[in-house]
Amino acid sequence: MRIAVAGGTGVAGRMIVEALRARGQETVTLSRGAGVDLLTGTGLDDALTGADAIVDASNVTTMSRSVSVDFFERAGRNLADAARKAGVRHLVSLSIVGIDRVKSPYYAGKLRQEEIVRAGAVPWTIQRATQFHEFPGQLLARIPGPIAIVPSGPGQPIAVREVAEELAEIVLGEPRGMAPDLAGPRVETLAGMARRLMAAGLIRRRPVLPVHIPGGTSAGGVLPAAGGPRGVVTFDEWLTSQRQIQQ
pTM of the prediction? Predict the structure, then answer.
């Protein structure tokens, strides 16, 4: 199969490309570096020529609702329209567990992305996954000051590679609609993960203060529904691998 990966140069996208190639599939990366701009549609039609399927792992780094919604609205519509014109048989979209329960500016954009996929003419699968093991470090990097203030409440983080492997299997099969939630093997807290990151020397040491955030996060809004697939790599195992890479 010829499979296009939107956001194929990102953290998840690179691993999706690797997982597909390991399965003997031909991949096409949809990125600005490859001459494709999802926001304008430039290069999309040519890149999707002969494509059988698409995995959408595109992303934008923002805490602004308007920026998030604008990105996923424009990118989602351009990708769906180009996929329809190219005769793509399966569009797989990577989403996030809890975006319909947690009030987050970024999640508003992801919800819009899901709406576009569901309303489109191309058969689809939406795979919601919990946050990656990298998320606590990324979050703390955006929190200035002498104290790391993080949301309280539980989550169930997963290794990016396990998400990539699942998406590779999904895109090679028949469209599923809304797939069961994909999550990691163990419930964690952001505060606990942050402290372990600091103890491992991977991020700057400072006091960690968990706070209640209205809107679902602190109440377990990002936990997966029962019955979905689960990864096996724990946060501590991932942390050990990151320390080895740093050495």
Answer: 0.94
